[in-house]
Amino acid sequence: MKIVDPDAVWDVRPWGCPAFTVQDFNGDGKNEVLFVQNAGAHANEAFDPRFPEVQGYKTGVEEQELFCLTLTDGAGQILWQVGEPWGLDRPFSWNGSNFCQVVDLDGDGQVEIMLIHKSELMVYKGATGELRSTHRLPHSGFYYARAVRTDRSGRYHIFTKSVTTSATHGYGNPSLLLDHNFNVVWEVEVDGAGHGGNYADVDGDGLDELLIGFSLFDHDGGPLWSHPPMSENDHLDDSVIADIDDDGQLEFALAHDGHDAVVHNSDGTVRFTVPMHHCQNILPGRFFEDETGLQLAFVDKAMGRAEEREAAIVNSGGRELSRHRTMGYYSVIPWATDLGRDSLMRLEWPARSNAEHRVLWVDPTGRELARLKVRVNFHDRFQKFGLESFPAGGRYFGTCHNSAIGDLDGDGHDEVLVTDREKVWVFKKP
Asked: Please, are residues 132 and 121 in contact by the beta-carbon 8 Å criterion?
């Protein structure tokens, strides 16, 4: 297998972090990289050791106070920074996804960064890092926030939800719709609400419908369809809303925690089911050129027994095109193979800390095309800080790689960026 050297290596200490994204933040036509350093979804009182009455995993107090945004150019040079980066020797605890949205909220042609930290919905100017506004949410545990169109005012409303446990609510609840002045329009609790929500204009009226758990709500909050969780602890781990068969109608692919994945038609009826062990991610792409429409890659949880860590790719009708073992998480990358225009990047999470944490470019059948030359393993971090006994095998503390994908140099082709929180390795297509 080909070993690929990085095209660039950045030193991102002390502001490096697992949550980073590649986009154009200042409108100059070039992509920058935003690093969001905080405790992520754990930045709420349920995980704060100063609230011992709430049972469960606790971060350090320092994680609860950590907040730093850093924007770099495409070469890793800092353009602006807000807040103080992590200053302790030990790594900070973090968990989450869907950590921010970059969107022109006010229609002035310049993008804002919208995110939630410790129940504060904050909006920053993408170009300068200036804080535009901050709004206190009525409950803790919120982390997911997206701008949606739910009325004819021409202004964005904000769809936000909890993604974890909080001091006042169960897992993934509640969900809120806020108007353009950040006032609560409606609030709902849903069985199986899970992690992030989703949204799309399903009926073509120009307004967004909102997916919460396994339930779809109209723009005004009215329920459209709903399916119960498959078990007491089942919740939505991931979702994709897309027209997978190119018929003009949207389909819903839903990952059930610890169960199979289910794909629904726009009216909520079941289209097909994909057998999985614990489907945690769903990735749409055009992996096989001879298939019409989109294909969906369903990926099991990255931890657990090897025989229960699989990836399955199906076509728009549910026919299985590929199934293979995987030892980690996947991302879709638009690097063409001899099978199709899209392929996969695998960040492996081996069971042993001294095993190789490989980052692999693979085709949709799981064939390993190239290995990216990054940090070999995280055994030194495990040993130095005694992380083996922590939840998720120390993964909260950065004993794994994270990645982002985007075109850094403006040549029209995406690079993959891989970080261990201390360095960022940048790779072009081999």
From this structure: no
CA 66/CA 412 separation, integer angstroms: 36
335 burial via Cβ count (<10 Å: 0-12, 13-18, 19+): buried
* Amino acid sitting at position 367: R
Longest dimension (CA), the chain: 57
Q: Is 166 helix (H, G, I), strand (E, B) or coil?
A: coil
- List the structure tokens of 359: 């980052």
**Closest by CA position to 235, among listed 177, 174, 193:** 193
The Cα–Cα gap between 373 and 360 comes to 9
Residue 398 CA to residue 358 CA, distance in Å, equals 15
Percent of the chain clearing pLDDT 90 (strictly above): 83
Q: Which range (330-334, 373-377, 378-382) has the least confidence?
A: 378-382
Helix (H) / strand (E) element for 21: namely strand 20-23
CA proximity to 67, closest of 98, 94, 97, 33: 94
The sign one gets for the Cα dihedral 14, 15, 19, 23 is: negative
What count of Cα atoms within 13 Å lies in the side-chain half-sphere of residue 103? 17
- Tell me which H or E stretch contains 272: strand 270-274
pLDDT at 42 over 70: yes
Q: At residue 185, does pLDDT exceed 80? A: yes
d(CA 80, CA 111): 15
